[in-house]
Write a structure and sequence with these properties.
- The complex is a heterodimer of chains A (about 525) and B (about 500).
- Chain A has helices at about 5-20, 25-50, 80-100, 110-125, 130-140, 140-150, 155-185, 200, 220-235, 245-250, 255-280, 280-310, 315-335, 335-370, 385-390, 390-405, 410-425, 425-450, 480-495, 500-515, and strands spanning about 60-70, 75-80, 210-215, 215-220, 460, 470.
- The two termini of chain A are about 35 Å apart.
- With about 525 residues, chain A is mainly alpha-helical.
- In chain A, helix 4 packs antiparallel against helix 6 (about 140-150), helix 7 runs antiparallel to helix 9 and helix 13 (about 315-335) runs antiparallel to helix 18 (about 425-450).
- Chain B folds into two domains: about 1-160 and about 185-190 and about 220-260; about 260-505, no CATH class.
- In chain B, about 75% of the residues lie in helices and about 5% in strands.
- Chain B has helices at about 1-5, 10-25, 30-50, 70-90, 100-120, 120-140, 145-180, 185-190, 200-215, 225-230, 235-260, 270, 290-310, 315-335, 340-370, 375-380, 380-385, 385-400, 405-420, 425-450, 470-485, 490-500; strands at about 55-60, 65, 260-265, 280-285.
- In chain B, strand 1 and strand 2 (about 65) form a beta hairpin.
- The chains are: A mainly alpha (about 525), B mainly alpha (about 500).
- At the A-B interface, helix 5, helix 6, helix 7 and strand 3 of A face helix 19, helix 20 and helix 22 of B.
Chain lengths: ~525, ~500
């Protein structure tokens, strides 16, 4: 049995310990330790990708040890077609975001310790196959996230941090109840079997035969538990109306953490839905699938409309995430192979393009110290940037067009797949959803016009006084920034042109997942 | 003679207490007083090891139940008291000229608590509770120069005597209905007369008795004394009161309801063998007397009162006081399930609660010693001043919230699992919401420590947070929180084996 996944998950923990014992003053050493501790998982994830059997629908690289024997809790890891891309995404984004946090000044040691702990939690969630272990990783992530937003964030960081924490913990607490309920009922109808936390095994059970009694109402077991779990994941995605933490957290978080939030954390919600709700409770999922379609469409349109109204660049990108995650929900909810493949690919694609966009917001913020598309006084915050900073503009252009789904870039492939699949099932609804593409183009291009085109009128915010005055020359992208942005841009282009290798990873697993749905 | 041997740990504690008190008159050495007290505890612990046997027996013709359950609590109480002694040793809140009294009172208090967890007879229950209460009043008012401390003590006396009076009246009513003095006797009474129409008086009596017991575990609405007493008492005393009498009270509460007012337990073999099955060990309420329903209401009420009231507090000690009320609510949840899993969860929770709460109070005490206060204000910027204390405090707070990978999560998990195992979904959902509420006020402390800059300057001429041994113990407690959060099977196995006592 290989321990590849264990090494991949826990190597950053070693890094965190090493950083804890490094003297506070050796900041560059701390940064390099962080870079190395995230590089190793990246290398391991590439090794996993290359040796992953694409023709198998089952779990691969499994590891299983007994952890708490009396509760039948196991340390059980494994990945399949759904998680393999997300593992790669996590490793890649986490590695790149280390360089995005290179200019952190405050409490460097604490920052990178928290950062590496976060890495452990994220990677663990995607690899855990034991529900208990899954929950532990899921919650472990909250702790560093709270401090990363709360200490190193923007002006309203404390509010954003506690809001994020409360929302996610609420979801987590309900999810825990759902997990325990599944565990209890996994003993079988006679209550004599051995209960199990094994996610693969739970997916083989029939949950429709039970009912539960809640405050005197007799409710079907599987549908009730479906909701408990769904709310937990929906808050993370975030699905309307649970999304209100997201603009705050995204906007207030430091650049690298926004990158991680958009790039990886949101995917945990959709991944959880697929791994848990769709796999374990198929009947309930089928029952609620139309509601999910509607919710997905609301996400797409509402997110896009909100994005259009924003004058803060980072908030615009944050709402565009809400909109783009809507495509994932829609693609999953229609229960068609094409759409489902599109949804999983969209998780990966959005991870890349949103990470790139947040990174680029950071690039602008470092230069101008503000994020206004339009200032409160009604002036353009960055007007005509293309004239002074063509390289920044070029990078932005790739990100923008990947985001709005231009053919040839990655966003197009996954969105097209989602719509192709969705159209087979729900014609009218899909047509309404395609409005989202138009709106997406509208808010992104309008933003591009106001930020990059026209005469150069960019403003610079004085950090001391908080006043805005015309900016002088802008330094171009530095090498460090290119290191982060270039690989993401290249991946956008590669997947846009040749998506087949990615789709090969997910096809078999999704095929098996969809077998239970007629 | 057998009976005397059974209570030998308590005898040792009594003599130890007297010795510390008398020796303190001549020997003023801080270390001597500390070590003799610790030695007394260790001796008592050693006696527990020699007398522990899994066969339960009644001592002094049914006054005391000497069984694995009481041994578990006895050992736990000794350990908790030892922990508080270590905390008190370096605390500056205990005046050095009154240390011998302090140790003597706590040792005597321990005898009361041990009797609470093993009492079977109403008279002994009352005496044990009174012993604990009266000594707690003294401890709460230990700062007799400080008006807050005196106020705390006074409030405690008023509430406490009220509660005891109600309780003893309730007991007399129960005696009036059943004609029995002992819990085992009441159980026999019920099993002899199964289809009995119980008079309303029975209800009244039990509710009144619960008032006295609930006051010890600070269940709402008998919780009002808690915040004032914790705030006024010296911090190590607050740590002790939040953990030890609460555990003893919980033990008494369990014994009172499970031994006295439940019918037999079925399916003993499965639960004892260690394999987990929540429904395997269950006890059922005595006919027509649905006490768990009543406890359920109290549990929900307690959770909400504790958590909601804590939200607005600015003193960390008061926050922890209200949080201790909320935690009493969570624990009561386990008893309402009427299952062995629920009881095991309570016992587990008591142990981890001790680890996290004493830890948190320890840090509060250190801050109090250095900066002279325990408001959120004093905690500001702790992470810059003493990162290790702040990190440990954060671990305690997360553990109290019930987040993995800390021990508090396991405690909550076991309680939730017990509740859901009995299909009490509503209660579980309410408790889950409550832990989300609690996050807010725990994070208020974390926020002050981490996000904000120090505000109160270090007083002149004080070396801040100097004690190395305290630091070591705090780190040890934080470490235990992590270890128990990741691997708790050994402790759980011990608890499962202790529960055998309720299998008739």
């Amino acid at each position: 049995m290989s321990h590849l996944l264990t090494y991949m998950i826990f190597f950053p923990l070693l890094g965190a310990v090493a950083i804890a014992f490094t003297p506070k003053t050796k900041e560059s050493m701390i940064k390099w330790i962080a870079a190395i501790s995230t590089a190793v998982p990246l290398v391991l994830s590439l090794k996993i990708i290359t040796s992953f059997d694409r023709l198998s629908a089952g779990m691969q690289f499994q590891e299983k040890f007994s952890w708490i024997q009396s509760l039948n809790v196991n340390y059980h890891l494994g990945i399949d077609g759904i998680s393999v891309l997300l593992v790669l995404l996590t490793a890649l984004i986490s590695f790149l975001a280390v360089f995005a946090s290179w200019n952190v000044k405050k409490m460097v040691k604490g920052y990178f310790t928290m950062y590496l702990l976060l890495h452990v939690g994220m990677m663990g969630v995607f690899c855990a196959l034991d529900f208990f272990l899954f929950y532990v990783f899921w919650e472990v992530m909250l702790l560093p996230m709270y401090f990363l937003v709360g200490i190193w964030g923007g002006e309203r960081k404390e509010y954003a941090a506690i809001k994020f924490f409360l929302y996610t913990l609420l979801g987590g607490a309900l999810m825990l109840l759902g997990i325990i309920a599944l565990y209890m009922y996994s003993r079988g109808a006679d209550g004599m079997g051995i209960p199990s936390f094994n996610m693969v095994e739970l997916a083989t059970r029939d949950w429709t035969q039970y009912t539960i009694n809640l405050f005197g109402w007799e409710l079907p077991f599987d549908k009730t538990v479906w909701w408990l779990l769904f709310i937990g994941f929906a808050i993370k995605v975030p699905i309307f109306p649970f999304h209100t933490w997201l603009p705050w957290a995204h906007v207030q978080a430091p650049t690298a953490v926004s990158v991680i939030l958009a790039g990886v954390l949101l995917k945990m919600g959709t991944y959880g839905l697929l791994r848990v709700n769709f796999s374990i409770l198929p009947e309930a999922t089928q029952y609620f699938s139309y509601a999910l379609v509607i919710v997905g469409i609301i996400n797409i349109l509402y997110g896009a409309l909100c994005a259009m109204a924003q004058t803060d660049l980072k908030k615009l990108v944050a709402y565009s995430s809400v909109s783009h995650m809507g495509y994932c929900i829609l693609g999953m909810a229609v229960l068609k192979p094409d759409a489902m493949a599109g949804a999983v690919l969209q998780m990966f694609n959005h991870g890349i393009s949103a990470a790139m966009m947040f990174m680029l917001v950071g690039v602008l913020y470092d230069r101008f110290h503000h994020r206004y598309i339009v200032t409160p006084q009604g002036k353009l915050g960055f007007g005509g940037l293309a004239q002074r900073a063509p390289m920044i503009t070029a990078a932005w252009t790739v990100a923008i067009f990947a985001g709005l789904g231009l053919p040839g870039l990655n966003g197009f492939i996954s969105e097209a797949l989602v719509f192709i699949g969705a159209f087979q099932a729900y014609k009218t609804e899909t047509m309404i959803a395609t409005l989202g593409v138009v709106l997406g183009a509208a808010y992104l291009l309008w933003m591009a016009q106001r930020v990059f085109l026209g005469p150069y009128t960019a403003l610079h915010k004085d950090v001391e006084t908080g006043e805005l005055h015309p900016a002088g020359d802008v330094p171009e992208m530095t090498l460090r920034e290119w290191v982060v942005v270039a690989p993401l841009g290249a991946l956008c282009l590669f997947i846009g042109v040749y998506p087949q290798p990615m789709l090969n990873f997910i096809r078999e697993t999704l095929g098996k997942l969809l077998e239970v749905y007629n | 003679m057998r009976s005397l041997f059974g209570v030998s740990p308590v005898l040792v504690l009594t003599f130890g207490s007297l010795f510390v008190l008398l020796a303190g008159l001549w020997i003023r050495s801080k270390a001597f007083q500390f070590w003799t007290s610790i030695l007394t505890l260790v001796a008592a612990l050693g006696l527990y090891c020699t007398i522990s046997s899994h066969a339960s027996q009644d001592l002094f013709s049914g006054m005391i139940s000497h069984d694995p359950f009481s041994i578990f609590f006895g050992v736990f109480l000794l350990a908790a008291v030892a922990l508080v002694f270590v905390q008190s040793y370096s605390s500056e809140e205990i005046p050095s000229d009154r240390r011998s009294e302090y140790y003597a009172i706590i040792l005597a208090l321990t005898t009361g608590m041990i009797f609470m967890s093993s009492a079977n007879h109403f008279l002994l229950i009352y005496l044990a509770i009174e012993t604990v209460s009266i000594l707690s009043y003294c401890l709460a008012g230990f700062h007799r120069e400080n008006s807050k401390s005196v106020e705390a003590s006074m409030k405690y006396v008023v509430y406490g005597s009220m509660a005891s009076a109600i309780m003893i009246f309730g007991m007399s009513l129960i005696f009036g209905v059943t004609g029995q003095y002992t819990l085992t006797g009441i159980r026999e009474f019920f099993s002899m007369t199964p289809s009995l129409d119980l008079p309303l008086l029975m209800w009244v009596g039990v509710v009144m008795t619960f008032a006295g017991l609930g006051y010890k575990v600070s269940a709402a609405p008998m919780h009002m004394w808690t915040p004032d007493v914790y705030e006024g008492a010296p911090t190590p005393v607050a740590a002790l009161l939040s953990v030890a009498p609460k555990a003893a009270g919980m033990a008494l509460l369990i014994r009172f309801f499970v031994v006295g007012f439940s019918q037999g337990i079925v399916g003993s073999d499965v639960a004892i063998s260690g394999s987990f099955d929540p429904s395997a060990l269950g006890f059922y309420v005595t006919q027509a007397f649905n006490w768990p329903y009543f406890l359920l209401i109290s549990s929900v009420f307690t959770m909400f009162v504790g958590n909601l009231a804590a939200l607005g507090q600015t003193s960390v000690k008061r926050i922890l006081a209200y949080s201790s009320i909320a935690h009493a609510g969570y624990m009561l949840m386990g008893l309402t399930t009427q299952t062995g899993a629920g009881l095991a969860a309570i016992m587990f929770y008591i142990v981890v609660y001790c680890l996290m709460n004493v830890g948190a109070f320890w840090v509060v005490g250190k801050v109090h010693d250095t900066l002279g206060g325990d408001d959120l204000l004093h905690f500001k910027g702790l992470v810059q001043r003493r990162p290790l204390y702040a990190v440990c405090m954060i671990i305690f707070l997360f553990s109290l919230t019930g987040l993995p990978p800390f021990a508090g999560f396991v405690g909550k998990y076991l309680l939730f699992a017990a509740t859901l195992g009995r299909e009490m979904y509503g209660l579980a959902i309410i408790a889950a919401f409550n832990s989300v509420i609690s996050l807010y006020y725990y994070m208020k402390i974390a926020k002050a420590m981490v996000f904000e800059a120090p505000q109160i300057p270090f007083p002149e001429g004080k070396t801040p947070f100097e004690s190395k041994s305290s630091m070591g113990f705090i780190v040890l407690l934080a470490g235990l929180n992590v270890v128990l959060g990741l691997y708790w099977e050994p402790l759980m196995n011990v608890i499962h084996s202790m529960l055998s006592v309720f299998v008739a």
